[in-house]
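General statements about sequence and structure are easier to judge against a single worked case. Part of our work consisted of pairing the sequence of a single chain with a tokenised description of its backbone. The amino acid sequence and the backbone structure tokens for this protein are reproduced below.

***
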Amino acid sequence: MARTTGARGRVAWPIPTVLGVIGGILLSLGVWWGSVALLGGALLALVDARPLLAVLALVGGAAGFGSARLVSVRTDALRPWLGAQVTLEGEWDGQFLTLREPRARVVLAPKPAARPGHLRVSGRLVAPDGRRTPGGFDQAAWLRAQGGVFLPTPTAVLVAARVRSSEREGGARGWFRQGLTAGLPPRQAALMQAIELGDRNDIGREDFAEGYAVRDAFARAGLAHLMALSGQNVALITGVLVWLLGFARLGPGWRYGVPAFLLIFYLLLVGLSPSITRAVIMGFVVLVALAVGRGKVDPYGLTALAALVCLLLFPLWLLDIGFRLSFLAVLGLTLAGRAADRLPAALPYWLRLAVAATVLAELATLPVIAGTFGQLPLVGLPANLLAAPVMAVLVPTGFVAGLLGPAAAPLNLLNRVLADALLGIAWAAGQFPVLPWGTVSPAGVIAYAVCAGAGVLWLLGRVRARAVLGTVLACTVLTTLPGRLHPPRDLVFLDVGQGDSTLLRVPGLTMLVDAGGSVNSDYDVGGRTVVPALRALGVRKLDVVVATHADTDHIEGLTSVLRSLPVGELWIGHRKAGDPVLDAVLAAAQARRVPVRQVTRGDRISAAGLSVTVLWPPGNVWSTADNDNSVAVKVESGAWSTALLGDLADPAESMIGVGRVNLLKAAHHGSRFSTGAALLAQATPQHAVISVGRNTYGHPNADVLGRLQAAGTKVWRTDEVGTITWPVP
């Protein structure tokens, strides 16, 4: 039991122990400062005059190291089949396909529309990708974090996955899902599955309107946590159970013991994830303490105990965003009572406590939210205050609906009204602007920690408010000043797979040339790859956006870019009539009141000693081939220059007068129809960048690579090295 020991104020034993476990896990991953956590745990015990507890911290370090090594070095059962076309059969839970033989878990891409259950699916097994763009999703790292001591780590992705046969899940989870969705329209049914089961697959396919996804609305409103199972679910469900058992006049053992053990079954029902596992452990300990009459538990010892159990079973959860968000939010909430006391006494205490809890949870998770998602909601406080009473009713009634199974349709008449209310709050709040944010650097994390420490000291009455304000202002200046004094001056060739997207940044000019696209797929490259990358790079607005030509893999993503960021001007070449992709880009520009400029040869823009000159198209003749109409530009800075040629084909590329360049952005992803010998003889580039991904077109072509090698040009490929950042002199 993790509890305080009275006036002596000793540290609860799980705190130094979990610090040791964290240190051991980090050391097993080769992170040297894991030793700081390990020694910090031992030092904390020694300061508390408890040498045996220091030994326990060291034992925790050994246990953490061993647990992490056990998970990390486990044999990959699927490695022999990587690259092969396979047919797999197993249980699909909406996130992973679990195989019985060999014992393994696999990611399916794209995610099938089939409900969770037994699937037979075919495709090609490939290794997961790491982070290939700034702010991008590191799939390989995320998958590594999903393995546990008794649970295999997902090690492969089945791409081009096609479902051959499927059977809906049965058992308790299948029954529960039927109850959640009985009689509900698709959107409300999807929301109920997200809230009660943590299954966000269906809600991820729902839109309020074109370009306005339901999940994006929840994120912009600061309500995304409502669709992640957490302590709120546990508190509401157990609270109702305890209240109902109170009417039976049962003793504490039954009143609190029954809900405690029901939490275990609830965890098995919804599945393991960091936030819900943490919540169940903490809820179980609190209820057991109440059942045996042990009184109030120490919140910090209890939090450390939950982290200890989680990390010993799932050591690489330490790297999981959900794990960090969950525990940071809980640590923030431990100060809610003190913060509520600081608010005006004229307000009702329940309101002060709700406001304090919401603000502290947001502040505690701020660096992780900002650095991971590239934005901070500005209306999170009012949105959460409005959503709280809805969730207080919806979570318990939804749980009851799940227990009723197919007979839940009458109860779901109420749940539909509540779900509509929650969707309405998200829809309205999601339309407010958000605060964009870039990558949080180590200096930013340190500055945040200093500010957070000052805030905690203020809540504890150790320092005055003016000291906290001065600390925040000083840290803000120190972290923003370097970027102001040394603004970026570079070209960033974003890895958008089989597509094209290039960012130019110099003081006074930020230009994006294309934003990728996904042919024959509903994956939004612009919204899910390019926009997060721009935010991670600190791009708040774009002065110029260039749509080179009407090809999906170049301009489809610009629609989301135009909807997400302020844009000064949109450049296009051929205004091709009736092209759905280009029409969508132009419609987005019109909706955001972005001026559209049809550029031709000779158009030019300059800033900070750099110039961008349009080399093509001539504007008087248009080809029937979109590639021949590509907007091609030359970027010059002093004696240095580069050319971005879109998909321009030979011989046009050699006729536009590129001249000598230091860096060539090879046209058309290295197609055999571009980067001809005449162009290379004229440009004599020292380096060439090829933007390319997995494809069936044979890009980059072997002859093109041979010509570049013969010209003495070093080739850089996004499919090999990911995003490429090139300094501009």
Observations:
- The chain has 27 helices and 23 strands.
- Residues 380-404 form the longest helix (25 residues).
